[in-house]
């Protein structure tokens, strides 16, 4: 009789242990994990994309409609009217990113604005008036989210309700700093979900960190996705970058998944094994 009595205790403990293990390795929410392919050195290629098994979607700075790509609207009339044709065509995309960093001409010093808020508001109006019935538009993303470009844009276009999600770019050395910036943005713009369409532990003082602090980058990446999983208002996070580019871009000099030779970096395997837990 004594031999059988421990069994009911052992089995539940084993089940509890198994459940804890399964919970610790829970997969990320569908659609949360995504990547950015930067232009230069080949940018997106099918070979590179096939190596990134965990990502749901990818973007690049182009209005493309390749498999799993989310197109990005350029800041030209030509792009606006092309987008009108696409969203009203036979196979409209599920999502479309709108203006990317219109408040910052990359490389300009002092900083120059590509489009003033009023110009951007006027430019996008034809698309919003002929938006089709399927594609969801993601709000413009400023380079400097604390400045006044975005409020002025919405004030000029009266189109805030036209967007399904807000959008932000985040580069900080520590994950704590990144969380603070994301939370600050969400406190101001909290009536819609958020897409983080660029994130990495950037802002290195040296242009090309050597050696690259892969351990720090890996921990940052794992922590930010695990934190994003816990916040239901964060719908997508795009890791920057899928591919290696010029290391003088200090935002992505230590965060690329695949190098110039199309070989994996120490970051690719942890990215492919993200559990968001």
Q: Estimate percent helicity.
A: 25-40%
Strands of the widest sheet, in order across it, are 2-1-7-6-5-4-3
Query: What oligomeric state do the depicted chains represent?
Result: single chain
Give the percentage of residues in beta strands: 5-15%
Biggest sheet layout: 7 strands, parallel
**How many structural domains does the protein architecture include?**
1
Number of helices: 8
Features:
single chain, 277 residues, alpha/beta, TIM Barrel, 7-stranded parallel beta sheet, disordered N terminus, signal, Asl1-like glycosyl hydrolase catalytic domain-containing protein
Description of the structure:
The chain has about 280 residues and is α/β, with parallel strands linked by helices. The chain has a single domain (about 30-270), classed as TIM Barrel. Helices cover about 35% and strands about 15% of the residues. The protein is built from eight helices and seven strands; from the N terminus they run αβαβαβαβαβαβαβα. The chain has helices at about 5-25, 45-50, 75-85, 115-130, 150-155, 175-190, 215-230, 270; strands at about 35, 55-60, 95, 135-140, 165-170, 195-200, 235-240. Strands 2-1-7-6-5-4-3 form a seven-stranded parallel sheet. Strand 4, helix 5 and strand 5 form a beta-alpha-beta unit. Helix 3 (about 75-85) runs parallel beside helix 4 (about 115-130). The longest helix is centred in the N-terminal third of the chain and has 18 residues, at about 5-25. It is globular. The protein starts with 6 loop residues before the first helix and ends in a 5-residue tail after the last helix. The model is unreliable at about 1-25 (pLDDT under 50).
């Amino acid at each position: 009789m004594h031999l059988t009595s421990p069994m009911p205790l052992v089995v539940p403990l084993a089940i509890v242990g198994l459940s804890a293990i399964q919970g610790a390795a829970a997969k990320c929410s569908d659609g949360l994990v995504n990547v950015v392919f930067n232009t230069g050195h080949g940018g997106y290629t099918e070979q590179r994309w096939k190596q990134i098994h965990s990502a749901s979607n990818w973007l690049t700075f182009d209005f493309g409609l390749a498999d799993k790509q989310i197109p990005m609207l350029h800041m030209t009339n030509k792009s606006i009217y092309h987008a009108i044709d696409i969203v009203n065509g036979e196979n409209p995309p599920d999502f479309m990113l709108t203006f990317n960093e219109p408040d910052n001409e990359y490389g300009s010093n002092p900083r120059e604005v590509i489009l003033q808020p009023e110009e951007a508001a006027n430019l996008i109006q034809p698309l919003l008036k002929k938006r089709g019935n399927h594609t969801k538009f993601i709000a413009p993303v400023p380079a400097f989210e604390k400045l006044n470009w975005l409020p002025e844009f919405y004030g000029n276009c009266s189109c805030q309700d036209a967007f399904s999600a807000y959008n932000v770019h985040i580069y900080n050395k520590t994950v704590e700093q990144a969380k603070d910036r994301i939370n600050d943005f969400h406190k101001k713009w909290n009536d819609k979900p958020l897409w983080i369409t660029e994130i990495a532990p950037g802002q290195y003082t040296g242009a090309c960190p050597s050696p690259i602090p892969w351990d720090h980058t890996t921990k940052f990446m794992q922590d930010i996705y695990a934190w994003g999983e816990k916040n239901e208002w964060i719908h997508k996070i795009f890791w920057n970058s899928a591919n290696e580019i010029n290391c003088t871009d200090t935002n992505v000099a230590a965060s690329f998944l695949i190098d110039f030779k199309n070989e994996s970096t120490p970051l690719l395997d942890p990215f492919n094994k993200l559990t968001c837990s």
